[in-house]
């Protein structure tokens, strides 16, 4: 297990949606006649997990710091609870997190009553569960 863990102040469970897919671990070779020949490409394959989490602006800032600093732009794996089987596993970011504002005022004039900490964000994560 990694020494980095998912921040306890961030959502640990799927709130909006989730998708799980398995890395294609098969090598296919076209034959002159008959069916393609197939064999395993790897001894272990990753699982990819795409989810959307609802976060406050404050939580999104924590996630941003976790991604940029703690995991060094997603290059270091971290422990997180797999939302499908609830087991603690090693994950890493497959893509940088992205977010869409769903509620709140974060107008283009930051000093005019903008409240970034209580705004609600739909945060998209694509994570790789390591084998």
Structural class: mainly beta
Radius of gyration: 19 Å
- The tally of helices reads 1
Shape: elongated
How many discrete domains? 1
What is the N-to-C succession of helices and strands? Answer: EEEEHEEEE
Assembly status:
single chain
Largest sheet: 6 strands, antiparallel
Low-confidence stretches: none
Give average pLDDT, whole number. Answer: 83
Distance between the termini: 11 Å
**In total, how many beta strands?**
8
Helix content, binned percent: 10-25%
Strand content: 35-45%
Topology at a glance:
Elements: E1 17-22, E2 26-29, E3 37-40, E4 47-56, H1 57-70, E5 78-81, E6 88-93, E7 98-103, E8 120-129
Antiparallel strand pairs: 1-4, 2-3, 4-8, 5-6, 6-8, 7-8
Can you describe this structure?
It is a single chain. This protein is mainly beta. The chain has one domain (17-26, 39-129). It has one helix at residues 57-70; strands at residues 17-22, 26-29, 37-40, 47-56, 78-81, 88-93, 98-103, 120-129. The protein is elongated. The mean pLDDT is 83.
């Amino acid at each position: 297990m990694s020494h980095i863990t998912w921040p306890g102040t961030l959502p640990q469970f799927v709130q909006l949606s989730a998708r799980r897919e398995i890395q294609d671990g098969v090598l296919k070779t076209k034959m002159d006649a008959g069916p393609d020949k197939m064999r395993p490409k790897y001894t272990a394959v990753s699982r990819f997990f795409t989810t959307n989490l609802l976060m406050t602006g404050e939580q999104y800032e924590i996630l941003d710091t976790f991604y940029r600093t703690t995991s060094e732009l997603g290059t270091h794996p971290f422990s997180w609870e797999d939302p499908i089987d609830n087991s603690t596993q090693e994950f890493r970011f497959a893509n940088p997190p992205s977010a869409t504002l769903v509620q709140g005022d974060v107008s283009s004039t930051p000093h005019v009553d903008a409240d970034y900490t209580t705004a609600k964000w739909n945060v998209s994560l694509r994570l790789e569960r390591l084998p």
